Amino acid sequence: MALCTGLSGSDSVHAQLDRLRKAQGTLPSPVADTPSIVIPEGEFLMGAAGPDALEDEKPQHPVWIDRFDIDLHEVTTAQYADFLAHEQRMAPWQWDAVDLSQHHDRPVIGVSWFDAEAYCRWRGKRLPTEAEWEKAARGTDARAYPWGNQAPRQEWANFGLGARFSYRQVLTPVHSYDQGRSPYGLYQMAGNAGEWVADWYGTNYYEVSPPKNPSGPASGSFRVVRGGSWSDLPKYLLTYGRLRLPPETRNSYTGFRCARTVGPAP
User: Are 224 and 241 in contact (CB under 8 A)?
Assistant: First the structure.
């Protein structure tokens, strides 16, 4: 797996942002944050049951999640470029292929878990927990995919495109696929870019996780990625599907969205 070894190049990032603002005329300065959706407090069924469920998806169990906000869509290259222009961080893998005039509305990929966590913190947010992400993706009816229980179709999600990456050919704008939105209206909780979440990965964590606001094991070697990507087969787009990666991983399949803790509903 290739890793980025260059510096962020904040001067070139500033120049790209300036060119994009001039070309579009409407791009805010600084780049606007992603709108968020309120996920109401309450219980949902997490995980899966039955013979087709993988061991780390069992047992299916009720989980109570407090009210929280989560981004409407995945963080874009334009938003991440704004972050790089203000913070001294290593650029994402494949960042030299980004042309903001063409790719500003594509999800940023090539970011490690540490990069994603730092971006969310910069925005005054955080990564969603695995349980929060799953509730936001599937709602309270235990659906298999964000849009329901029907197998994925090309008009509902961006998936199954193989392994050859380019921003132009395999990633789609973050507001694409209206018909594939989650019960709460979130875009692309399946496909396009897989998404880092806050939790350490634990194979048997569901057997011991608390029934209210679980936040994953206290430590581990891997972080959890959810949602599947542009490259994946339908079975990896399941709302309860779990992937593990070393947190330092930067690849063409993984991006993120942010969340925020909010108070109880008035």
Answer: no
CA distances from 12 to 7, 16, 17, 91, 255 (A): 11, 6, 9, 11, 22
- Which pLDDT band holds residue 2 (cuts at 50, 70, 90)? very low
CA separation, residue 167 to residues 32, 37, 76, 171, 255 (Å): 21, 27, 12, 5, 13
How many residues can be counted in the chain? 266
CA 29, CA 32: separation in Å to the nearest integer? 7
Residue 106 has pLDDT above 80, yes or no: yes
Angstrom distances, CA of residue 226 to CA of 98, 199, 242 = 24, 11, 6
Q: How far apart are CA 194 and CA 174, in angstroms?
A: 12
In which element (H, E) is residue 42 found? strand 42-46
pLDDT number for residue 5:
36
**pLDDT tens digits, 21-68:** 444 444 445 799 999 999 999 999 999 998 999 999 999 999 999 999
* Stretch (H or E) spanning 24: helix 10-24
Q: Is the pLDDT of residue 1 over 50?
A: no
**What is the residue whose two structure tokens read 């600084």?**
30
- For 17, the token pair is 């942002």
For CA atoms 207, 208, 210, 213, give the dihedral sign.
negative
Q: For 237, which DSSP code?
A: G
The answer for residues whose C-beta is within 8 angstroms of residue 231's C-beta and 6 or more apart is 159, 160, 161, 162, 163, 170, 252, 253
- Mean pLDDT score, 229-239: 97
pLDDT for the residue numbered 263: 77
